[in-house]
Amino acid sequence: MNPLLLSLYLVTASSLIGQVEWNKETPSRTPDANGFQPSCVKNLAGVCAVVRSDKKTGMMSFSEILEDGAAEKAGLKKNDVLVLVDGITIVGMDLNSVVNLLRGIPGTKVSVTVLREGVQGPQTFEVVREKVVFKNPTP
CA-to-CA distance for 8 and 22, rounded, in angstroms? Predict the structure, then answer.
């Protein structure tokens, strides 16, 4: 997939949790309509997952877990519904506020409590934040 299309997908379909770092072969980017610019966030990291907000219910879930990323390493899965971040309830929060709770300094931990289909009760995972790096896809 074209890197620009990938970045537009990630920004418009949901919010990427963490810093995006493009490899050297990726041309410079300018901010899009949402103000997204891969190089604009310095010294931030995240859980390497994409969060979406359900407009009907207001619930937030992981729509994508990046392979070999922090969320996957911690055991989080696609479609896990977020309940708490570091003990703070996210019910009623907007998407950007939740994203800001998940972001932080690389190497720091964030506690993420989720509800998972087929599992009774909430589950809590400790995630070590890391940078999100996209490699250019091959044509």
Answer: 14
End-to-end CA distance of the chain: 7
Chain segment 4-59, per-residue pLDDT in tens: 434 433 333 334 444 444 443 333 444 444 444 343 344 568 999 999 999 888 89
Q: What is the pTM of this model?
A: 0.68
Distance CA 46, CA 92 (A): 21
Does residue 106 sit within a domain?
A: yes
> Any idea what the CATH number is for the domain that residue 46 is in?
2.30.42.10
User: Domain of 43?
Assistant: 3-134
Do the strands 132-134 and 20-22 form a parallel or antiparallel pair, or are they unpaired? parallel
- Residue 75 CA: distances (Å) to CA of 61, 70, 133, 138: 14, 9, 19, 29
Residue 95 lies in a domain: yes
Q: Which two tokens stand for residue 16?
A: 């990427």
Asked whether residue 139 is assigned to any structural domain, the reply reads no
For the chain, the average pLDDT equals: 75
Query: Is residue 121 one of the residues assigned to a domain?
Result: yes
